[in-house]
Amino acid sequence: MSVQGRRLGHGLRLARVARWDILWAVFVALNLAAMRLLPEWQTVPFLAIWVSLTVAYAFRLWPLQPALLTTAVVTLATGGIIGAQVISGQQDADYLVLVPLVAVMFLVMVWHGRRRLAALEERLAALEEVQRVSKENLRLLEQQRLFLLDASHELGTPITVALGHAELIEQAATDQVADDARVVVSELGRLRKQAGRMLLLASAGDPGFLELAPFALDALVMDALERWGYTPRRWRLGEVTEASVTGDRDRLAAALDALLENAIAHTGPDDQIELSVRLADGQAVFTVSDSGSGIPGDDLERIFDRFSRGHPSRRRKSGGFGLGLPTVQAIAEAHQGSVRVRSTVGAGSTFELLVPATVAATYAAGQMAAD
To answer: Around Cβ 310, how many Cβ atoms within 10 Å?
Structure first.
């Protein structure tokens, strides 16, 4: 292609891009000619020019410098024609006053438009920052989840090995060594339980977290009571509904263990712990009540947060609420259920784990939506 052809093509592209500006310039030129040649039209072409300028600016906010330059050119052009007509006696002098007034009105609109544009840009910048922070938080959460998965897996083997050796020492030793070994076994068992809960919490949102199958509610509750009933408390079995529902029996057993462990940690030998299960409004409701120290109102809103610290009166050996209650909440939410608590300081607490009796359908629907 020749140089002349390239220039022609470039010119045509510029004309397509600036076609509306060219049309507006032609419109203004025609109205300036009408002002000059047809003074009997009076303010009609003058107002047509300024109205068209206002409409053009409203549809596309120009940068400040071109807007001011255009205003100056239009003001001088229209003012020059009207001034010449006033001098020649074709128009009254009052007509000339319209030029600065209309120009000032247009400049006020330019200022207001720029101010609105600046506010919009500031708002968009704030939204972009929020989006950036949200993405960063999601990245950190995913990083935390992966860390918990890796840490739980890596801790599992050495804890199991150390626990096995400590149990052998406890069985073979006597007196003080055996007592020390029992402490080591107890703490290693606690550490293994916490590592297991870390792994559970980290994998709670993964597909396949639940293995759904029918199970008997009464059998689940009786097994939990058998596991914990050796602890010196005043145990009571409340209402137990004999029914079969669909859910992950092992996960729900872990949730009950966490609730019972929490109740034991915050009660004494003379306190009562009651365990029950019933069907209500299409849900299986597991209830663990105790007559222990209770939970202060300020703690109720955060006891399901991971590693939350309770009031000093509730810490005792457990050192707060730890991972037990967050584990309960994660298991409940995976079943499309919930967990709730009522408590009075000095009078005990009641935890309820609610699981839909038709959890299989809701869980499958949730997994399809996630996929």
So the answer is: 21
- CA 241 vs. chain centroid, Å, equals 38
CA–CA gap between residue 117 and residue 129 (Å, rounded): 18
Give, in order, the Cα–Cα distances in Å from 152 to each of 139, 201, 203. Answer: 20, 10, 11
d(CA 293, CA 107): 72
Identity of the amino acid at 146: L
Instruction: Residue 190: name the closest of 324, 290, 289 by CA.
Output: 324
Please answer whether residues 221 and 238 qualify as being in contact, where contact means their C-beta atoms are separated by less than 8 angstroms.
no
Is beta strand 234-240 parallel, antiparallel or unpaired with respect to 272-280? parallel
Q: Helix count (H) and strand count (E) of the chain? A: 12, 7
The DSSP-derived string for 5-54 is HHHHHHHHHHHHHTHHHHHHHHHHHHHHHHHHH-GGGTTHHHHHHHHHHH
Rounded distance, CA 183 to CA 66, Å?
82
Amino acid at position 259, single letter: L
Task: Please give the torsion angle defined by the CA atoms of residues 191, 196, 201 and 204, in that order, rounded to the nearest 10 degrees.
Answer: 180
CA 123 to chain centre: 19
Handedness of CA 231, 237, 238, 240 (dihedral sign): positive
- The backbone region for 294, taken as left when phi is positive above 0, alpha when psi lies in -120 to 50, beta otherwise, is left
Q: How far is CA 290 from the centre of its chain?
A: 35
Note down pLDDT in tens along the chain; length 371 residues: 555 555 555 555 655 656 777 787 888 888 888 877 887 777 788 888 888 888 777 777 777 787 788 888 888 888 888 788 778 777 777 777 778 888 888 788 778 777 887 888 888 888 888 888 888 887 777 766 666 666 665 666 666 666 676 777 777 777 777 777 777 776 677 666 666 666 676 667 666 788 888 999 999 999 999 988 888 999 999 999 988 888 899 889 989 998 998 899 889 999 999 999 999 988 999 999 999 888 887 777 778 876 555 544 444 444 444 678 888 988 998 899 999 999 988 889 999 999 998 754 444 445 445 55
Q: Which amino acid type is present at position 341?
A: V
φ/ψ of 236, rounded to 5, equals -140, 130
H-helix or E-strand containing 153?
helix 94-172
